Amino acid sequence: MWNAIKGKDIPASLRICAGTDGSVTQLLEVLTGKSVNVKTQEQSIIKASPDIARLLDIKKGDHVNRRLVTLNVEGIVFVLAKSLAPIKRMPSGMKDDLMRADIPIGKILRDYRLETRRDILRIEIVHRDLFGDIPVISREYSIIYKKKMLMWINECFPVDDRWRI
Amino acid sequence: MWNAIKGKDIPASLRICAGTDGSVTQLLEVLTGKSVNVKTQEQSIIKASPDIARLLDIKKGDHVNRRLVTLNVEGIVFVLAKSLAPIKRMPSGMKDDLMRADIPIGKILRDYRLETRRDILRIEIVHRDLFGDIPVISREYSIIYKKKMLMWINECFPVDDRWRI
């Protein structure tokens, strides 16, 4: 799956953000030397459909926080990130941060001092409406906490010159 | 402390490796598209001095694995990394991997599927003999596991054109 980000036509800074097992927001800030703004496009609590229940290994109908955000630097969108997080697995307090505010997930994990593991599940090239004709690197990964999936995340990175930072 | 890596004279790929809260080896592999070789310069089990005991929050005389390695791509040294790890905090089996072989720490953590947190403690510009007159970004961080320091790590990155990848 790593071949999707190995092409020489993919800017190095994009390869890095799509390949890290750390926080993308932090990398973007180090890379640009500027603040990253998280803009929430959608956020809601849903009941898990059979597919989502299977993905997250929870019961159908369990409550899940669904969040769709963009990561922006000076008004330019670098990442579109969708996340699904079972409510019952969140440490108390974390739910409010996830729902309320435009806080990056890496920061939330640090603030709550959680010990976690990131498992990268898939990396591929796709298309997404938000980015029109621009190809997009899409990757899926899970954040594991206490041996369960605390969060499933899909990040999409447009492949173009905005990454020539 | 982040100012040390914000300078525009520091190549972007170096800023990223020194700023990530993920695995540096993985970033280097994504960045270069090549394998990273870990070369062990020194490895020994020592008894904790008072200073090391304080650093790791263990008792004086407790056993500690001390490892000094370089991360190399095609014979070029990109990172000099020193680590201290209290033996008693390692999950069984991990000790052998740390001592025996030239395996990157990020890979060891993934192989044992550990849930951890990386806390960056310090980033500064220094000099190190290995790199002669070349300035070096030095950063210290700890890998936290079960609320204790599993490992203290100091990584040194030479600041020169080898990072213009």
Structural class of chain A: alpha+beta
Distance between the termini of chain A: 25 Å
| Spatial ordering of strands, largest sheet of chain A | 1-2-3-6-5-4
Could you tell me the strand content of chain A as a percent range? Answer: 35-45%
Q: Give unreliable regions of chain A as ranges.
A: none
Structure notes:
Two copies of one chain form a homodimer. The first copy, chain A, is an alpha+beta fold and 165 residues long. Chain A has five helices and six strands. Chain A has helices spanning 12-19, 24-32, 50-56, 94-100, 105-111, and strands at 37-47, 63-73, 76-86, 117-126, 136-145, 148-158. In chain A, strands 1-2-3-6-5-4 form a six-stranded antiparallel β-sheet, with helices on both faces. Chain A is globular, with a radius of gyration of 16 Å. Chain A starts with 11 loop residues before the first helix and ends in a 7-residue tail after the last strand. The model of chain A has no long low-confidence stretch (mean pLDDT 91). The A-B interface holds A 2, 5-6, 8, 12-13, 15-16, 18-23, 26-27, 29-31, 33, 106, 109-110, 113-118, 144-147, 165 and B 2, 5-6, 8, 12-13, 15-16, 18-23, 26-27, 29-31, 33, 106, 109-110, 113-118, 144-147, 165.
